[in-house]
Specification:
- This protein is of the alpha+beta class and 292 residues long.
- The chain is built from eight helices and six strands; from the N terminus they run βββαββααβααααα.
- The protein has a four-stranded mixed sheet, covered by helices on one side. Strands 5-6 form a two-stranded antiparallel sheet.
- It starts with 6 loop residues before the first strand and ends with a helix.
- The relative contact order is 0.15.
- The mean pLDDT is 85.
């Protein structure tokens, strides 16, 4: 099954006093890589998010952005700094004694002095936060997966069209191949007869040399293998698992056969067709780089 590695998804869920918003972007990548951007106090959730995303996507670079809001999130709790409180109280008591005031310092007034209370943020309940984050991530992943699948169907249609074009080009090369062998045999025969007097030509040796030459320029095996790779390519497109790596391997094999055909080409028209074959293979490679 052809699935693109490019997609976007967004999910938002509110539950248990938390509202989680997740945005997910996916681009081409050789392996499955996930980068997560989230508030510092929620960093323990990073690995959970990565595991969730990689349970669905096997290839591509996926960027996840998480925002969480809620009444219970990041509340600041006042904590009495006893040393500061005692310092204010004792200082005021000494000042009152020096001024001849007998009334003891009012604790409430002391408590209102700067830095008597410090505020600490409460640690969020990560399991409760996860109850909102997980379904938001799943929704974003589902949307991204749907987009990747839709683009994959378009890619598959283009790939099939190009493979059919390759089949036509190879078929034309096969039609021209016998002409190449006959043309080469005739040129070899004529050249040899120009250099050697006809009465001195060993006909058996001449036929043997022509046969060897014909074998060296024969492209039957290469064209048959090329058609086989084309068929495997089309079958691979229908597989359920990720197919990007296998398609890339088959294209490498096609390119190898095209190079061999080109090196054996003694016919200008065949050489021109080989150039067209290589151009289509390069276009296929560019498209396959987008496939999971």
């Amino acid at each position: 099954m052809v699935v693109s590695m490019t997609g976007f998804g967004r999910g938002e869920v509110e539950t248990g006093g938390y509202r989680a918003s997740v945005e997910l972007r996916s681009v081409n990548g050789r392996y499955g890589e996930v980068s997560v951007h989230l508030p510092r106090h929620l960093s323990p959730l990073e690995q959970r998010i990565k595991d969730l995303v990689l349970s669905v996507f096997s290839r591509g670079h996926i960027s996840v952005s998480l925002k969480v809001a809620g009444d219970a999130l990041g509340q600041s709790i006042p904590v009495l700094n006893e040393r500061v409180f005692e310092g204010y109280r004792d200082g005021l008591a000494r000042l009152q004694s020096r001024l001849g005031v007998s009334v003891a310092p009012d604790p409430l007034q002391v408590a209102m002095m700067p830095n008597v209370f410090e505020f600490e943020s409460s640690a969020p309940d990560l399991d409760a936060v996860w109850q909102a984050v997980a379904p938001a991530c799943e929704e974003a992943v589902a949307q991204c997966q749907s987009m990747r699948a839709a683009e994959g169907r378009q890619l598959a249609a283009d790939l099939v069209q190009r493979i059919h074009l390759l089949q036509d080009l190879i078929a034309k090369i096969q039609e021209l191949a016998p002409r190449q062998v006959e043309s080469t045999r005739r040129r070899f025969d004529e050249k040899l007869r120009e250099l050697i007097a006809p009465e001195h030509v060993d006909q058996n040796r001449l036929l043997t040399e022509i046969a060897l030459l014909s074998e060296r320029i024969d492209i039957t095996e290469e064209t048959v293998r090329f058609h086989s790779h084309n068929e495997q390519f089309l079958k691979t497109l229908d597989r359920e698992e990720p197919v990007g790596r296998r398609l890339n391997f088959l294209l490498q094999e096609m390119h190898r056969e095209a190079n061999t055909i080109g090196s054996k080409a003694a016919d200008a028209e065949i050489a021109h067709l080989v150039v067209g074959v290589k151009e289509e293979i390069e276009k296929l490679k560019e498209q396959v780089q987008n496939i999971e």
